[in-house]
Please model this.
Amino acid sequence: MTLFVSLLAGLVFGLGLIVSGMADPAKVLGFLDLAGRWDPSLAFVMAGAIGIASIAFLAARRRSVSLLGAAMRLPSAREIDRRLVLGSLVFGVGWGIAGFCPGPGLVALGMGESKAFVFVLAMLAGMGLFELIEHRAPRA
Amino acid sequence: MSIDWNHFTPLASLAGGALIGIAAAMFVLLNGRIAGISGVLGGLLRPSKGDIGWRAAFVLGLVGAPSVYLLFTSLPHPQIDAGYGTLVLAGLLVGLGTRYSSGCTSGHGVCGLSRLSPRSLVATGAFMGAGFATVFVVRHLLGI
Model:
């Protein structure tokens, strides 16, 4: 059942990305271009998503197991460190040069876009690089 | 700043955002998980027993979304102006950055802000700020 929920959640998430316009890098860049002709649409995507998700998280926080009986796994990290800030900055630069973040990259791949395929491959390589650096060598 | 009224789609974007919110709500209430795409995908690269199926299913749902959308109406065509070299660089930066910061637009931006997480607020401010700055440099200083 949790597998089916995962599939359905990914699907609904992907449909949301298409409907909202976030799967289109040109639209994302139009939002990030404050100094040009600015398209504020993506602020509405965030508002719609957070408006609904915040209610769910309010309920989730009071529970130790999900409605299907799975463990409630909410992030426990609290520290605001260099990894968080530098990682986010690096991500933001990558997002700004092509207009793709991870979800829209995967959705555009599903549209059969060869450029999205290249982006996703490179993104997986970047994630693999992280695994190599962080998890191969024993950490002090 | 001037508003690009021709491309402004408040209703479609709000509706699409609501779908994203429903997906995140469903995922946490039923499966107890954060719908953070970089985390779900990145976890597949460090496979452990019992941890692969749900991740693969979520990713499959994302990649399959256009095919399902196509059952109802014709697909919008994404406009990808970046060249292949730029896309490779962008992918590497997005992959590395999101794993170091433990989240992307979905995990920090949608789920984290919904949980009022200070970490996610800082992360979202940082990647949005870097995104705004990058587009400014690329479009207005370098003129690409």
